[in-house]
Amino acid sequence: MNEYLFDIYNRPNVVNLATNENTNLTNSIFDFIVIGSGAGGAVLSKELAEQGAKVALIEEGAIPFPWETSAFRSLLKLYRDNGFTGTIGKPMIPIPLGRCVGGTTVINSGTCFRVPQKVLNLWESEFGLVDINNENLQDCFSKVEREIHVEDADWNVMNKSSDFIRKIFTQKNLPCLPLRRNTYNCQGCGMCCYGCTSGAKKSMEISYIPKAIQAGLFLFYNARAKRILLSDGKTGKGVVVDVVHPTTHKVINKVEIKGKKIIVACGTMLSPLLLKRSGIAIDNPNLGAHLTIHPASKISIELEDNISSWVGIPQGCYSTVLEDEGIIFEGVAMPPDLGPSAVPFSGNELIHYWKNYKNIATFGFMIKDSNEGSLRFNIKNQPIYSYQLTNTDAQKLKRAITFLAELALDENPVQIFAMVTKQPNIIKNRDDLNIFMKQEHVPSDFECMAFHPLGTCRLADSPEKGVCDSNHQVFGTKNIFVCDGSSIPTSLGVNPQLTIMALATRLSQILKYL
Ligand SMILES: Cc1cc2nc3c(=O)[nH]c(=O)nc-3n(C[C@H](O)[C@H](O)[C@H](O)COP(=O)(O)OP(=O)(O)OC[C@H]3O[C@@H](n4cnc5c(N)ncnc54)[C@H](O)[C@@H]3O)c2cc1C
Ligand code: SF4
């Protein structure tokens, strides 16, 4: 941690509830209590604090500094449940989430896209969100882009997988462009998803949260909101907070924090749970429903040469060549202590993959979902998310695999690994590719991950369609709002963090007058 951040995170308004004995701090009445310090919560808190409001930001995780030096140890420290969060269905789909000050932005790849116009049109026609239009959002996007320094990725520090992919795309005159990312002076160390130790990635713990603390915000961490307190059954008046142990995450104490307006920003997978636990919107069938995730996968291309693709920007370039089919290609690379294990191979094939990991180029793709998942509870009342990959989406994944394999074969790679469980899943030549293409594949054959859960408390013009109105206020309540990925009404087709941040900026302006 540099001196500037050390000074900020050691101020008296930054409170580690696990060690704090000063109960006066929790006796105040805040203008706003924001729960969750990720893309939605951090942006909103900073904007409100800079308007002069008295804001408490409550975060279940700890401050991510000092950074760990290995990806594996970072995963244990920064990811919720050691990275084992996801959906039940065929296939089961891991959805990693951040649990630390800064939320999932600390462990994301830094890609920044504005919401596509056709998605805004859909929100207007299907959900009556007439005020959430391009004109109203322009300034919000521009403001966020300035705050987190959105720029084109620099090809000089791109990883070698991206160089290979650019070559195979451009020699066929297909687009392959640098992604826009929230970085400044990126050194290409390749660790974006495990905490950017150099501070180049302007995620929330580096950008918005320090500014909010300087503006007087109270940050309470190791603090898990258990329940929202209500007066007259519908008006938010405070939050019951479980103080959690920083490493075991077990409850060690309990406090109440009082506030006039409560904003839930726990992320798509957790915001509906907090509302349910608090008895809020429990009769609204949209609560916890409409989960979209952008199912994603990748292919690995083994080359003759050592390309050590974990060095350089992992997610630095993209292609929209199949955008009309709902497929976006984006770079992906994992460090050697994690990457070689996350593949559907076994025995000699797996050993070969491990041994030759340095020669492997990877490229990813994600699809705009045609299905929605939802939250339900098992017999022990534990929350589970179910999500079923549709056959249509499985065929899109197959289309992406075969499209990339086709291009890569022109370069005579040693072999190509497809992330499908049904064999043959290794392609050495065009005959193998033809066999792969003719093979019948069902959704459970695909090994997917997903990084963009959205929609479980979606905005709409009526409680029949959504959980919150266009001002993010939960229908049927007073002073209770939701502002995070769960507010996004539909799958975006592009990475969501910038849209979540722009909507949080917009909400900060609305809350001034409510
Ligand atoms: C590996 C990875 C790579 C990604 N790459 C990109 C990318 O390149 N570009 C992009 O646009 N998006 C990317 N994303 C997704 C993006 O980071 C998320 O969409 C975004 O951070 C979601 O913001 P949020 O505010 O909804 O939730 P989060 O950022 O997840 O923040 C929620 C916070 O709330 C806290 N919390 C939860 N429950 C409670 C509670 N009860 N009490 C207190 N605190 C609580 C959590 O600990 C967390 O810190 C990526 C995600 C992952 C996992
Ligand atoms: S590549 Fe390294 S320096 Fe660049 S943003 Fe990622 S973690 Fe930071």
Task: Report on the architecture of this protein.
By secondary structure, the chain is of the alpha+beta class. It is 25% helix and 20% strand. It has 12 helices and 21 strands. A hairpin with a 6-residue loop joins strand 11 and strand 12. Helix 5 crosses helix 12. The longest helix is centred in the last third of the chain and has 19 residues. It is globular. The protein starts with a helix and ends with a helix. It binds flavin-adenine dinucleotide (FAD) and iron/sulfur cluster. Flavin-adenine dinucleotide binds next to helix 2, strand 3, strand 10 and helix 12.
Task: List descriptors.
globular; single chain; 7-stranded antiparallel sheet; alpha+beta; binds iron/sulfur cluster; binds flavin-adenine dinucleotide; 8-stranded mixed sheet; 21 strands; 514 residues
Mind sketching the topology for me?
Elements: H1 3-9, E1 14-16, E2 29-35, H2 39-50, E3 55-59, H3 71-78, E4 86-87, E5 93-94, H4 117-127, H5 134-147, E6 150-152, H6 160-170, E7 177-178, E8 180-182, H7 208-214, E9 218-221, E10 223-231, E11 235-244, E12 251-264, H8 271-277, E13 296-302, E14 317-319, E15 327-331, H9 347-355, E16 360-367, E17 374-377, E18 383-386, H10 391-409, E19 415-418, E20 426-427, H11 430-438, E21 480-482, H12 497-511
Parallel strand pairs: 1-9, 2-3, 2-12, 3-9, 12-21
Antiparallel strand pairs: 4-5, 6-8, 7-14, 10-11, 11-12, 13-16, 13-19, 14-15, 15-16, 17-18, 19-20
The chain binds flavin-adenine dinucleotide and iron/sulfur cluster (SF4).
Iron/sulfur cluster is lined by residues 110, 183, 186-192, 196, 198, 200-201, 313.
